[in-house]
């Protein structure tokens, strides 16, 4: 793929990209959780990130909450979650995960509050993940160990308290 640049309204150079870099960051998507989701205490749970900001190639499924890109390559995957203990100083331990093909944890973020429990925690996770372009997929999961009560993952129809996205970065 060539990059053509303009200088003073005339072509000034043509540059080839290095091998393995496409210059096109798609398929790409970003979705968010439109309302809070209660989850079971101390159980890994797929987050129902159900509303798309965008989905360039229809690779994100808002029913199964899976990203299954149709082009092989490496993807920058990211997510953020507002984890809520639903009670003052009830968070004990939180974790976020990317789970590939329902079997392999490819990224994990773990935060312990055992010495200083909190009520809320806003946690990001990100990872470069390789996909085969046909059957590989990932889901975004959370785990909340709450001292008491039913924890939740914050969502809202007007902002992205909890979101999940990815875009292709190359072969």
Would you mind describing this structure in some detail?
The protein contains no helices and 15 strands. It is an all-beta fold. It has a single domain, classed as Jelly Rolls, CATH 2.60.120. Strands 3, 4, 6, 9, 12, 14 and 15 form a 7-stranded antiparallel sheet that branches. Strands 5-13-10-11 form a 4-stranded antiparallel sheet, with no helix packed on it. The N terminus is likely disordered.
Query: What is the CA-based Rg, rounded?
Result: 19 Å
Listing every helix as H and every strand as E from the N terminus to the C terminus, the arrangement reads EEEEEEEEEEEEEEE
**Total number of beta strands:** 15
CATH-derived architecture: Sandwich
Rounded mean pLDDT score: 87
Q: What share of the residues lie within helices?
A: under 10%
Compile the SSE list and pairings.
Layout: E1 2-7, E2 10-16, E3 28-32, E4 37-38, E5 45-46, E6 51-55, E7 60-61, E8 66-67, E9 73-84, E10 91-100, E11 104-112, E12 120-131, E13 138-146, E14 152-154, E15 163-170
Antiparallel strand pairs: 1-2, 3-6, 3-15, 4-14, 5-13, 7-8, 9-12, 9-14, 9-15, 10-11, 10-13
Kindly list the characteristics that best describe this protein.
single chain; disordered N terminus; mainly beta; 15 strands; elongated; 171 residues; Jelly Rolls; 4-stranded antiparallel sheet; 0% helix
């Amino acid at each position: 793929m060539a990059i053509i640049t303009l200088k003073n309204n005339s072509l000034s150079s043509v540059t080839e990209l290095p091998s393995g870099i496409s210059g096109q960051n798609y398929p790409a998507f970003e979705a968010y959780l439109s309302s809070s989701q209660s989850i079971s205490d101390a159980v890994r749970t797929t987050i129902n990130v159900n509303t798309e900001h965008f989905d360039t190639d229809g690779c994100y499924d808002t029913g199964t909450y899976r990203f299954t890109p149709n082009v092989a390559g490496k993807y920058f995957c990211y997510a953020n979650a507002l984890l809520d203990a639903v009670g003052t100083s009830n968070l004990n331990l939180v974790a976020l995960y990317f789970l590939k093909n329902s079997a392999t944890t490819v990224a994990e973020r773990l935060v312990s509050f055992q010495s200083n429990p909190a009520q809320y925690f806003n946690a990001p996770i990100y990872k470069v993940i390789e996909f085969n372009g046909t059957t590989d997929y990932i889901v975004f999961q959370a785990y909340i160990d709450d001292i008491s009560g039913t924890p939740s993952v914050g969502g809202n129809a007007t902002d992205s308290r909890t979101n999940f996205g990815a875009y292709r970065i190359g072969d």
